[in-house]
Amino acid sequence: MNYRALRFVLSLIFIFTAAGAWAQSSVWVVSASKGKVYLAGSVHMLRPSDHPLPEEFARAYDSSEKVVFEVLPNEMEKKENAENFLRASVYNDGTSLRDHISPAA
Description:
This protein is of the alpha+beta class.
């Protein structure tokens, strides 16, 4: 995945995670005639009291043929990976997400 695509994916993750503050769950379903894609908000900063995860997570995992993480859970333990992830998650050119995605999107 190139740097621009990674930034876009991370931006979507942040949007969905922020939206989860008002949603019943942080699992969304995107459907089309060819199938479904489940999008789950970030779970790596949860408190012990947030466990177990809502049932929607189990249903999404059970219904999925493939699970993809933005970062493999054990990879964030490596300092260089955490630094790269953080560096890729922000704009360094003075712009913000609003400069790259229209209000309609």
